[in-house]
Design a protein that fits this description.
By secondary structure, the chain is an alpha+beta fold. The chain has a single domain (about 1-135), classed as Nucleoside diphosphate kinase-like domain (Alpha-Beta Plaits), CATH 3.30.70.141. The protein contains seven helices and four strands, in the order βααβααβααβα. It has helices at about 10-15, 20-30, 40-50, 60-65, 80-90, 100-105, 120-130; strands spanning about 5-10, 30-40, 70-75, 115. The chain has a four-stranded antiparallel beta sheet. About 30% of the residues are buried. Bound molecules: inosine-5'-diphosphate and magnesium ion. Inosine-5'-diphosphate binds near residues 52, 60, 109 and 115.
């Protein structure tokens, strides 16, 4: 089953939106595999956002993501990478669809509340960066047959 990395960024934590955002992922039927509440050091932030190094917003982005604790999670489900990106909405809240997290709770791109892996390949790399293998929990969910067809 496909997996993705989700971060609730410092603004989501400071604004008390951890529960509201996790509830949306649970309500969709996605399955939580790992979760931690932690502060990033600069090294992890730079590795996580390596692809953006050199861009105009890079320094601000590193300052933002290291400014306060984050919630890091791994979620599982069919097409979970695309599903979670849709639930979070477009990078810029101005472009995010009504009903998405970034539309409903955010205004500006530099305070857009969440990170979610953008491709399955990226997800695999990001999950390895944030979690060790023994932190990924293998568990049976009682209602899977009512969420996944053909179970
Ligand atoms: P994503 O988070 O939707 O995948 P990316 O393009 O990968 O978006 O950018 C990573 C993060 O960098 C964004 O979520 C946002 O926090 C920040 N960011 C992107 N573009 C800008 C910008 O133009 N100004 C300020 N911050 C930006
Ligand atoms: Mg991205």
């Amino acid at each position: 089953m496909e997996r993705t990395l989700v971060l609730l960024k410092p603004d989501a934590v400071q604004r008390g939106l951890i529960g509201a955002i996790i509830t949306r992922l649970e309500n969709r039927g996605l399955k939580l595999i790992a979760i931690k509440f932690t502060s990033l050091d600069r090294s992890l932030a730079e590795q996580h956002y390596a692809v953006h190094q050199g861009k105009a917003f890079y320094d601000g982005l590193i300052a933002y993501i290291t400014s306060s604790p984050v919630v890091a999670m791994v979620w599982e489900g069919p097409d979970v990478v695309a599903l979670v990106r849709a639930t979070m909405g477009a990078t810029h809240p101005r472009d995010a669809s009504p009903g998405s997290v970034r539309h409903d709770y955010a205004l500006q791109v530099g305070r857009n509340l969440t990170h979610a892996s953008d491709e399955t390949q990226t997800a695999a790399v990001e999950i390895k960066l944030w979690f060790s293998e023994d932190e990924l929990v293998d568990w049976d969910r009682a209602n899977d047959a009512w969420i996944y067809e053909g179970e």
